[in-house]
Every structure is written in C-alpha cells, then in structure tokens.
Amino acid sequence: MASPTAFETVIGLEIHAQLRTETKIFCGCSTRFGAAPNTHVCPVCLGLPGALPVLNRRVVDLAIRAGLALGCTIQTRSIFARKNYFYPDLPKGYQISQYEHPIATDGVLSYEAADGPHSVRILRVHLEEDAGKSLHVGSGASDRNSYLDFNRSGVPLVEIVTHPDLRSPAAAADFFARLRAILLAIDVNDGNMEEGSLRCDANVSIRPVGQAELGVKVEVKNLNSFRFVQRAVEHEIVRQTERCRGGKRIVQESRQWDDASGRTVAMRSKEEAHDYRYFPEPDLPPVEVSEEWVAEVRERLPELPDARKGRLIRDHGLSPDDAAQIADSPSLTRFFEATAGVASNARAAGNWVTGEVTRRLKQDGASIDAVGVTPEALGRLLAMVDAGRLSASAAKDVFEVMYGTGREAEHIVRTEGLSQIGDEAELREHVTAAIGQHPDAVARFRAGNEGTLGFFVGQVMRATRGRANPILVNELLRSELASRDTE
User: Fold this and answer.
1) Helical axes 305-316 vs 169-185, angle rounded to 10°
2) Residue ranges of the domains in the chain?
3) Across residues 138-146, what is the average pLDDT?
4) What is the pLDDT of residues 199-243, one digit of tens each?
5) Cβ(257)–Cβ(269) under 8 Å?
6) Cβ contacts of 323-331, under 8 Å, gap ≥ 24
7) Which CATH number fits domain 424-485: 3.30.930.10, 1.10.10.410, 1.10.4160.10, 2.130.10.10?
8) In the prediction, which pLDDT does 487 show?
9) Residues 244, 206: contact at Cβ < 8 Å?
C-alpha cells in the first residue's frame, strides 16, 4: 500500500500595527484606548459627506521608521487608494489604504532562532486607517442588536506583509514575537495585543513535498497572541491535510480562530484584489518622501533588539538567554543597565532582572515601568550581597519587602536583623550542632556521598534563617567533617 502523500506547510503573515500617535491618521481625534463609545469621533472619521481627510505627518514618519528597521526600500512616492467593501463598522463604505504604491517594499528580517538562522522576506509595508468596531454583547435588547463604536475608525495602522517564507507554526509565532520586539524597540507600536493595537492574519497553505506551486491559501484573521498564532496554524495544517487526503478540495476563504473549541471557523470566502475595486483616493495627494527625510529618520532609528542583545553580551558579559530576554524590551534594558551601574555587577543584575523582577511583574500583571522597586534601589541591594552583608536567599526576602513598601534595603536589613552572619565562631556553633544532630548523614558523607554536604548547609541556613554566609559554612563543614573522620 502506498504511503500517504507528505505535505509541506507554507505560511505568510500580515501584521497590523497601530502607530503610536496621539491623533488619528486623517483627523485630530484622539487615539486613546478605553474611552466611552463614540466619544473620539468627528465628521472625518465618521465618513460624513463633505468631510475631507488631511494626512498626519507623524504617521508617515513612523511608517518610514518601520520600513527602515525591516530593511525595506522607502518609496519616494506612495499613493492612497480606496478599498471598497461594506461592513457596518466602515462608515464610508470604503477604507483608505495603500495598494499598488505602498510606502515601503522589499525588506528582509534575518535572525537566529533555536533551530538555526532564519530569513523572512518583507513584501510590503503600507499605511491604512482602521475600521470601527461592531459590538454583539449584552442582554435584553442587545441580544437582538449589534452596536457600533467608531472610536477606532481612522486610527493609523501599518500593515506588514511577508512573503510565504515560514514553514511551521512555531516559526510563525516566533517571527511575530520578533517583529513585535522590533516595533517596540523603534517606538512605532506599543505591542499591546489585548487592546488590539497589534494583531496578525496568517495565510496558510499546504502542498505535496517537492512541489513548487503554492497550494490554496486560507487566511486566519485577527490573531492577537503568539500562542493563538501557533495553535491556529497547527489546527489549520491538520484540517487542510485531512481534507486533501480525503479527496476534498481546499476552499480559499477567511477563517477565525475559536480558542475555546481549539479550531478555526469559516467567516467568508476570501476576496481578491479586484473584489475591492481599488482606485486612487481623489481627496489625498501622493505622499512624497525625500531622501533627506529618509536620512533624518534613519539617523534617529533606535538600537534594534539583535544589536542590543549583542551589546549586552559583549559589554556586560550576560548569557545569550538573559541578553535576549532583556534586549526584547527597551524599558527592561534601561532598567537592567541602571541596576548594573549601581550594583557594579552586571551578571547579578541580569540574573535578578530576568528572575525575581520578571517573576514579580508577571505575578502582578504589571509592566517594568510600574515596577515597585527602582533600579537604583535594586542595585544597592545587590551591592550588599556582593559585599557579603546579605545572603542571596535573604536578599530575595528583602526584595519582596522593598517591592511592597518602597523601603530601602539598608533600612530593612538593619531594622529586621537580616544581616549575613560572617562570624566564624558563631557559625561554627551551628555547624557543630547540625553535625551532632545527624550522625546518619555524617556516615553517608564519610562513605563518599558528597551530596550530603548540601543537606548540612541547608540545616545551618535554616537555623540561621538564611543569614549564614554559605561559602564560610561550606568551608567550616568540610573542616569539621574531615576532623571527625580522623577521630
């Protein structure tokens, strides 16, 4: 019996990123999230007759920045078009977007992943306005009606479209994460996927291994987490493979991810470009971008995550894992470097920032900008550990108190008696007591079980409430056990 056909997965992504502006793309309405419905609106973003759009210059500036960060060619002349379709939350009956002449083209994002080097080509970066939002929740009358909120209508977006260069669900999720880190680093997008300011559409197809021609593409819309991207693509691969092996054809369509059921659900047949009846927007002139403008933006381009990671490894001696975690966030990098500057121990600062600080932020659901301990205060805490005044375990307890109260480490240690015990005579008493209380463990150590030493260290640390100097405790234990071995 012939083996089933082996299929290769082909994935391209379309990422919609809200640009960090205070006002919308074609009017002066606020882009602030969370306002009461239909309070950030005007005749322009409501599409009222006679209202004319005026392009926000900062939107173009940020789009150029995004294009440069992704290695794209910035076009000296780009053109807005009308993309015609009819949704209740699209008040004009069309979206102002860019089609044939986008602002940036032909880029590439190259990076090192766990499975080796990757390069994903960027087809285009184009500007467009966001649509409004349809609301279908509530009770009573709202069970039978939908409501429209136009606060998002006209919010500026860049759409970043890749070539179909990705080959696995994990690679797609990883690329999305790396792109988010770049957009954060260059301050183009806030990275807040829960609020909808960054979302991803995944174009997924399969084809027999060895076939050059692409399979039928299915678009999975509005994925707003890395996990959703991976799970949705995984499901879509299984669904398409089962259909092909069952003799059924793949339908080109748009689908949405239902995380509760763990499957994609059909939304509508996929439109082609001609379905949108694109034509140049008559109310907006072409966008002219001079070489001087591009050079100015390039000069202001911040450090990108890969370059930052390399610098953290080179200048601060961080491990690749710690450097990668810190480098993905500009604010986390600033926090780390301020901490390391005070502590004079970059490795320790890196371990704490990726360890205790990150753990506490995740626990509280907070950002590094809202952390309860300043980097300078954390640096002084780490300096106390380095000076032997505080044990590493006690430092964690002190950190928790600092986080909750804002008190300084010095004050906490002094008032709560947490200073590290470095007095040899005092520690020897605890060492002798631990050895005397556990003769069985002494016998195991004499029999060659070195791991027993850690047991004794734990006993001493427990007796001193974590205040004993662990290096001195180890030395005293070895000395005392050796002397008993000769008795």
Assistant:
1) 80
2) 7-294, 303-416, 424-485
3) 64
4) 999 999 999 999 999 999 999 999 999 999 999 999 999 999 999
5) no
6) 323/350, 325/354, 325/358, 326/350, 326/353, 326/354, 327/181, 328/177, 328/181, 328/184, 329/181, 329/184, 329/368, 330/184, 330/185, 330/187, 330/302, 331/367, 331/368, 331/369
7) 1.10.10.410
8) 52
9) yes
Distance, CA of 40 to CA of 151 (rounded, Å): 5
Please name every residue paired with 127 in a beta bridge, in sequence order, or none if there are none: 158
* pLDDT surpassing 70 at residue 69: yes
Tell me the whole-structure pTM to 2 decimals: 0.82
pLDDT recorded at residue 2: 41
Strands 156-162 and 7-18: antiparallel
Task: For 278, list phi and psi in degrees, rounded to 5.
Answer: -60, 140
Q: Look at residue 423 in the predicted model and tell me its pLDDT.
A: 62
Answer whether residue 78 shows pLDDT above 50. Answer: yes
In the chain, the amino acid numbered 482 is A
Do residues 18 and 31 lie in contact, with contact meaning Cβ atoms separated by under 8 Å? yes
Most confident of 15-24, 86-95, 138-147, 206-215: 15-24
386 close to 409: Cβ distance less than 8 angstroms: no
Closest by CA position to 122, among listed 12, 249, 234: 12
What the block records as the tokens of 213 is 């021609």
Q: Which of 294, 349, 343, 342 is nearest to 318 (CA)?
A: 349
Two tokens at 14? 């379309």
User: In a 10 Å sphere around its CB, with 0-12 CB exposed, 13-18 middle and 19+ buried, how is residue 1 labelled?
Assistant: exposed
pLDDT at 95 over 50: yes
**CB–CB of 225/15 below 8 Å?**
no
Q: What is the reported pLDDT for 4?
A: 62
Q: How many residues does the chain have?
A: 487
Rounded CA separation 211/471 (Å): 63
Beta-bridged to residue 81, according to DSSP, are: 97, 280
